[in-house]
UniProtKB/TrEMBL annotation:
InterPro entries, sorted: Class-I_Pyr_Nuc-Dis_Oxidored, FAD/NAD-bd_sf, FAD/NAD-binding_dom, FAD/NAD-linked_Rdtase_dimer_sf, Lipoamide_DH, Pyr_nuc-diS_OxRdtase, Pyr_nucl-diS_OxRdtase_dimer, Pyr_OxRdtase_I_AS
Protein name (database record): Dihydrolipoyl dehydrogenase
Family stated for the protein in its record: Belongs to the class-I pyridine nucleotide-disulfide oxidoreductase family.
Gene Ontology MF term list: dihydrolipoyl dehydrogenase (NADH) activity; flavin adenine dinucleotide binding
Organism listed in the record: Aquirhabdus parva
Catalytic activity: N(6)-[(R)-dihydrolipoyl]-L-lysyl-[protein] + NAD(+) = N(6)-[(R)-lipoyl]-L-lysyl-[protein] + NADH + H(+)
Subcellular location(s) of the protein: Cytoplasm
EC number: 1.8.1.4
Length: 479
């Protein structure tokens, strides 16, 4: 006799574990299938907690502290002796952070009486799920009233730079270098490439970033992308646009990279090469041929706005479906799917999904860029304000960047917020909340922001949309 569940979730990453927990909160009998083994033991949390968002932020923080100690403390009157970095200790700290968080998810499963099935899951016809244990135990068939598919994504590999986990690594391998490479190549100037390149640049690597496109950060507002490229280049990242890697060779522990930049063939040698050209949905052996699940032309699982698939009672969420591959988007989809199953009218607002790049300074945005707003037919008005004249930013030495707002010139409705600067990933949430409540720029202008804070730049940027910023000379505009 097969086991019966109200909900079976395949995948224990951010999307899957949040769905499982919410299901349990709503009184469902829940099983979550997860096959990941990290550092020799089964682990929940998916890519994000194990080899993505969390470990990369731990290394970003460590590298930032190291660089700040060397270059910034003198301005505060603080002197130190020789400063060194112990990469082994840094990586061990990263692993400790990961272990603490993944263990916390396991504890939440126990506390919510969620059955964690360690192995792989496959959706069969009739909402049955085939479970294959990691330990080689007997394959089981589970009966599920509802199923949520949340198997996540994996890095994209490219034939011209095959990953060997030694000289050439993907984003996972770049988290476990044992020494600082003297020279480092990065293929891809996207979020992952810029973040990992920043980590090792701060620790002393000479970093070259190859980007096949001829534009930098095309998804970002142009003003923000231009400022980001200027700042990151000044910091020492050698960003080469319109540079397509055509071949790699490994010899004597070095990687030779052949690339074509603007029609000219070039060659450069590195100690390490990181391949960061994006991610793709992971659906290996996830669906039986007769499961009834329809796919899109891109090979993603076809879902409606509430993540329901072509099979009633089966949902797909996160990196398996349309939209940005972001953990927070996946989490909210997991909660939405479960609440829809429970009969609630839950809905994710995809227009207010935040994007963040955790470089230094951080880059973040929500809503429409100026260019996207114009393309959608809006008559826009914009305003921006620099951190360079903000009291708190000056006091803390975080003066790079600015806040920019995009609004509809006719209705005054806020369309987008864009930030490059200290704590941008946190500050941008103010714009997200405003967008959720369909705020106008005037709403933000009329609010009182505490002094002295970085968020005062948000207020000034909102005021500048109508030429009213106090701490800048504004061009006169018609009343």
């Amino acid at each position: 006799m097969s086991k019966q569940y109200d909900l079976v979730v395949i995948g224990g990453g951010p999307a899957g574990y949040e769905a499982a927990i919410r299901g349990a909160q709503l009184g469902m009998k829940v099983a979550c299938i997860e096959k990941r083994v990290h550092k020799g033991k089964p682990s929940l949390g998916g890519t994000c907690l194990n080899v993505g968002c969390i470990p990369s932020k731990a290394l970003l923080d460590s590298s930032h502290r190291y660089e700040s100690t060397i270059h910034d403390l003198g301005a505060h009157g603080i002197t130190t002796g020789d400063v060194a970095i112990d990469v082994t200790t840094m990586v061990a700290r990263k692993d400790k952070v990961v272990d603490q968080l993944t263990s916390g998810i396991a504890a939440l499963f126990v506390g919510n009486k969620i059955e964690w099935l360690q192995g792989t899951g496959k959706l069969l016809a009739g909402k049955k799920v085939q479970f294959t244990p990691l330990d080689g135990g007997e394959v089981q068939t589970l009966d599920a009233t509802n199923v949520i598919l949340a198997s996540g994504s994996v890095p994209v590999n490219i034939p011209v730079a095959p990953v060997n986990e030694q000289e050439i690594v993907d984003s996972t391998g770049a988290l476990d270098f044992t020494t600082v490479p003297a020279t480092l190549g990065v293929i891809g100037a996207g979020v992952i490439g810029l973040e990992l390149g920043s980590v090792w640049r701060r620790l002393g690597s000479e970093v070259v970033v190859f980007e096949a496109l001829d534009t930098f950060l095309p998804a970002a507002d142009k003003a923000v992308a231009k400022e980001a490229q200027k700042i990151l280049t000044k910091q020492g990242l050698d960003i080469r646009l319109n540079a397509k890697v055509t071949a790699t060779q490994i010899a004597d522990g070095k990687v030779t990279v052949n690339y074509n930049q603007a029609g000219e063939d070039k060659v450069q040698v590195f100690d390490k090469l990181i391949v960061c050209v994006g991610r793709k949905a992971y659906a290996a052996d996830l669906l039986a041929e007769d499961s009834g699940i329809k796919l899109t032309e891109r090979g993603l699982i076809d879902v409606n706005d509430q993540c329901l698939t072509s099979v009633e009672g089966v949902y797909a969420i996160g990196d398996l479906v349309r939209g940005p591959m972001l953990a927070h988007k996946a989490m909210e989809e997991g909660v939405m799917a479960v609440e829809r199953i429970h009969g609630q009218a839950a809905q994710v607002n995809y227009d207010t999904i935040i994007s963040v790049i955790y470089t230094s300074p951080e880059i973040a945005w929500v809503g429409l860029s100026e260019e996207a707003a114009i393309a959608k037919g809006h008559e826009v008005k914009t305003g921006q304000f620099s951190f360079a004249v903000n009291g708190r930013a000056l006091a803390s030495g975080d003066t790079a960047g600015f806040v920019k707002f995009v609004a509809d010139a006719k209705t005054d409705r806020l369309l987008g917020m864009h930030v490059i600067g200290a704590s941008a990933g946190d500050i941008v949430h103010q714009g997200m909340i405003a967008l959720e409540f369909v705020s106008s720029i005037e709403d933000l202008q009329l609010m009182t922001f505490a002094h002295p804070t970085l968020s005062e730049v948000v207020h000034e940027a909102a005021l500048s949309v109508d030429g009213r910023a106090i701490h800048a000379i504004q061009r006169k505009r018609k009343a």
